[in-house]
C-alpha cells in the first residue's frame, strides 16, 4: 500500500486546502496524472502523482486544509490487491478519540476519519474537532493577503539565511534582436518569439558550465540539479507574483519554450498550476520586460542558490571600435548565494550568458 | 465597420488580457501600454487576439505605430479598408 502524501508546493507553501478530487477509489493512476486540486496562497495547484497505482481510499475531504506531507490517499502498488496489501501501520491503528470529541463531532457533522489528532499518542481532542469545523466552514480568506504572507515568509527566510552577493553586466543585444526581428517578420503572429525566450535559453545553457548556480542548498550542502528548471517570475495583475518552473529549458528548442512560456503565464494568471511547477524550480529568472526598470537585483528564492535578473531592453551609448554608437542592450544581474558559489564564478557565469546571446541562431 | 464597433472589439481583446480594464477609465489618446499595464507577453497576446477577431496580422515592425488606443483604431481602420476580405494582405498591398 502506498501512502500518497501531499507533495511539496514550493518553499513558501506549507499547506493546501483540498478543492477537488480528480481520482476515485478503484481508479488506475499513472505517474504525472492529476490526483487532486489543492488551493494555496498563490494558486489552485494540480497535484500530480509521483507513482503508479490503483486508488484504494481517499483520506481527506473537500475543504480540508492539511500540511504538506500529510497522507491524503491510499494507493495499491502495481501487483497489489486489496487482499494482499500491506497496510501502513498508522492506518491500521484504532483511532484514539475522547468521548467529548466524538460527541461534538456528531453535532458538528465532522468526519473523524479525516482528522489528525493533536492529543497524546495522536488522540483526537475536542479542540481538533472544533478547529476542523471552523476550517471547513470558514469562507476562503483574501487571496491577496495570503499571497503577501507567503511572499513575506519566503523572502524573509531568504534574507535571514542566504548571504547574497550581487553582480551586474550590460549585455549588447544587437545581434540577438536583429536575428529575432528577421525571424519574426517571416512568421504569423501566433508563432512569434519574445526576447524573453532567448534570455531564458541562454541562462539555462550557461548553467551547464556553471552547475553551482543551478540547484538547491539543503541541510548545509549544495545539491546540483540534473536539469535547468527555470523559475519564471510572473507578476499577477491583481498584485503579487509567482515563479513556477519552465521545465528542462536547456534541452528545448525556442519555439517549444515560447509555447510553454505562454501557457505557463496564462495558467499562472488564471491561478492554475501543477505541483511540479511549484516545487521544481532550480534557478529563478526575473525579467522586467519593456515597461520595467533598467536593472533588478533579486532576492533568491530558497532553497535555490541564485537568481538572474534582466532589466529593460533599451538603447544605450556603447563604444564600438573607438566610436560611440547607440546599442540595444540589457543589464543582466546575478544574485548569488555565497555559501554555494563565489563572485568570480558568478562573473564567469554572467559572461557565459553574454557570450551565448551573441550567437542567437545557436540558442 | 464603424469606429465605435471597432473600439468595442479592441477593448474586448484588451479585457481578455487585463480583465480589470474599465472602458470609461481608458483615455484613448494616452500611451496604451501605460494605461493598461501590458508587458511584452500581454502585448503579443493582444495582437494575437486582434488577429483572431479581425483577421489582421500586424507585423512586428508596425508595433511602434500602435501607441494609443486612438492609434490602434486608426491603424486597424486603414488595414481593414485596404484589405476588406479576410486574411492578410501584406503582399497584396500595392
From TrEMBL, chain A:
<dbReference type="InterPro" id="IPR036625">
    <property type="entry name" value="E3-bd_dom_sf"/>
</dbReference>
<comment type="similarity">
    <text>Belongs to the 2-oxoacid dehydrogenase family.</text>
</comment>
<dbReference type="Pfam" id="PF00364">
    <property type="entry name" value="Biotin_lipoyl"/>
</dbReference>
<feature type="domain" description="Peripheral subunit-binding (PSBD)">
    <location>
        <begin position="96"/>
        <end position="133"/>
    </location>
</feature>
<feature type="domain" description="Lipoyl-binding">
    <location>
        <begin position="1"/>
        <end position="76"/>
    </location>
</feature>
<dbReference type="InterPro" id="IPR004167">
    <property type="entry name" value="PSBD"/>
</dbReference>
<comment type="subunit">
    <text>Forms a 24-polypeptide structural core with octahedral symmetry.</text>
</comment>
<dbReference type="Pfam" id="PF02817">
    <property type="entry name" value="E3_binding"/>
</dbReference>
<dbReference type="InterPro" id="IPR023213">
    <property type="entry name" value="CAT-like_dom_sf"/>
</dbReference>
<keyword id="KW-0450">Lipoyl</keyword>
<dbReference type="InterPro" id="IPR011053">
    <property type="entry name" value="Single_hybrid_motif"/>
</dbReference>
<dbReference type="Pfam" id="PF00198">
    <property type="entry name" value="2-oxoacid_dh"/>
</dbReference>
<keyword id="KW-0808">Transferase</keyword>
<dbReference type="GO" id="GO:0031405">
    <property type="term" value="F:lipoic acid binding"/>
</dbReference>
<keyword id="KW-0012">Acyltransferase</keyword>
<dbReference type="InterPro" id="IPR050743">
    <property type="entry name" value="2-oxoacid_DH_E2_comp"/>
</dbReference>
<protein>
    <recommendedName>
        <fullName>Dihydrolipoamide acetyltransferase component of pyruvate dehydrogenase complex</fullName>
        <ecNumber>2.3.1.-</ecNumber>
    </recommendedName>
</protein>
<dbReference type="GO" id="GO:0005737">
    <property type="term" value="C:cytoplasm"/>
</dbReference>
<dbReference type="GO" id="GO:0016407">
    <property type="term" value="F:acetyltransferase activity"/>
</dbReference>
<dbReference type="InterPro" id="IPR001078">
    <property type="entry name" value="2-oxoacid_DH_actylTfrase"/>
</dbReference>
<dbReference type="InterPro" id="IPR000089">
    <property type="entry name" value="Biotin_lipoyl"/>
</dbReference>
From TrEMBL, chain B:
<feature type="domain" description="Carrier">
    <location>
        <begin position="21"/>
        <end position="76"/>
    </location>
</feature>
<dbReference type="Pfam" id="PF00550">
    <property type="entry name" value="PP-binding"/>
</dbReference>
<dbReference type="InterPro" id="IPR036736">
    <property type="entry name" value="ACP-like_sf"/>
</dbReference>
<protein>
    <recommendedName>
        <fullName>Carrier domain-containing protein</fullName>
    </recommendedName>
</protein>
<dbReference type="InterPro" id="IPR009081">
    <property type="entry name" value="PP-bd_ACP"/>
</dbReference>
Amino acid at each position: 500500500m502506498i501512502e500518497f502524501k501531499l507533495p511539496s508546493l514550493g518553499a513558501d507553501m506549507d499547506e493546501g486546502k483540498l478543492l477537488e478530487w480528480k481520482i476515485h477509489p478503484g481508479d488506475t493512476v499513472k505517474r504525472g496524472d492529476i490526483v487532486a486540486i489543492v488551493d494555496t496562497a498563490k494558486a489552485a495547484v494540480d497535484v500530480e502523482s509521483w507513482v503508479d497505482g490503483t486508488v484504494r481510499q481517499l483520506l481527506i475531504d473537500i475543504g480540508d486544509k492539511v500540511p504538506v506531507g500529510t497522507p491524503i490517499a491510499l494507493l495499491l502498488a502495481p501487483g497489489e490487491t486489496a487482499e494482499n496489501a500491506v497496510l501502513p501501520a498508522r492506518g491500521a491503528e484504532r483511532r484514539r478519540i475522547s468521548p467529548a470529541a466524538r460527541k461534538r463531532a456528531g453535532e458538528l457533522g465532522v468526519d473523524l476519519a479525516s482528522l489528525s489528532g493533536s492529543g497524546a499518542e495522536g488522540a483526537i481532542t475536542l479542540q481538533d474537532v472544533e478547529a476542523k469545523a471552523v476550517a471547513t466552514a470558514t469562507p476562503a480568506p483574501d487571496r491577496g493577503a495570503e499571497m503577501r504572507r507567503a511572499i513575506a515568509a519566503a523572502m524573509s527566510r531568504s534574507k535571514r539565511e542566504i548571504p547574497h552577493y550581487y553582480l551586474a553586466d550590460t549585455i549588447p543585444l544587437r545581434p540577438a534582436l536583429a536575428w529575432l526581428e528577421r525571424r519574426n517578420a517571416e512568421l504569423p503572429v501566433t508563432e512569434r518569439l519574445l526576447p524573453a525566450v532567448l534570455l531564458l535559453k541562454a541562462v539555462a545553457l550557461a548553467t551547464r558550465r556553471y552547475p553551482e548556480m543551478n540547484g538547491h542548498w539543503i541541510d548545509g550542502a549544495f545539491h546540483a540539479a540534473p536539469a535547468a528548471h527555470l523559475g519564471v517570475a510572473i507578476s499577477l495583475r491583481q498584485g503579487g507574483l509567482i515563479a513556477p518552473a519552465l521545465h528542462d529549458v536547456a534541452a528545448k528548442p525556442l519555439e517549444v519554450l515560447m509555447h510553454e512560456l505562454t501557457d505557463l503565464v496564462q495558467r499562472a494568471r488564471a491561478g492554475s498550476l501543477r505541483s511540479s511547477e511549484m516545487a521544481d524550480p532550480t534557478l529563478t529568472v526575473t525579467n522586467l520586460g519593456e515597461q520595467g526598470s533598467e536593472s533588478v537585483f533579486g532576492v533568491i528564492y530558497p532553497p535555490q542558490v541564485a537568481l538572474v535578473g534582466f532589466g529593460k531592453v533599451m538603447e544605450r551609448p556603447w563604444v564600438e571600435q573607438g566610436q560611440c554608437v547607440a546599442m540595444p542592450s540589457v543589464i543582466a544581474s546575478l544574485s548569488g548565494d555565497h555559501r554555494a558559489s563565489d563572485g568570480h564564478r558568478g562573473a564567469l557565469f554572467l559572461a557565459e550568458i553574454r557570450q551565448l546571446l551573441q550567437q542567437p541562431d545557436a540558442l | 465597420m464603424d469606429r465605435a464597433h471597432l473600439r468595442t472589439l479592441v477593448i474586448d481583446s484588451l479585457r481578455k488580457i487585463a480583465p480589470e480594464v474599465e472602458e470609461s477609465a481608458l483615455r484613448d489618446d494616452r500611451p496604451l501600454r501605460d494605461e493598461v499595464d501590458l508587458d511584452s507577453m500581454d502585448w503579443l497576446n493582444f495582437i494575437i487576439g486582434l488577429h483572431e477577431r479581425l483577421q489582421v496580422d500586424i507585423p512586428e515592425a508596425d508595433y511602434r505605430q500602435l501607441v494609443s488606443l486612438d492609434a490602434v483604431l486608426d491603424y486597424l481602420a486603414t488595414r481593414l479598408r485596404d484589405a476588406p476580405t479576410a486574411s492578410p494582405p501584406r503582399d497584396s498591398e500595392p
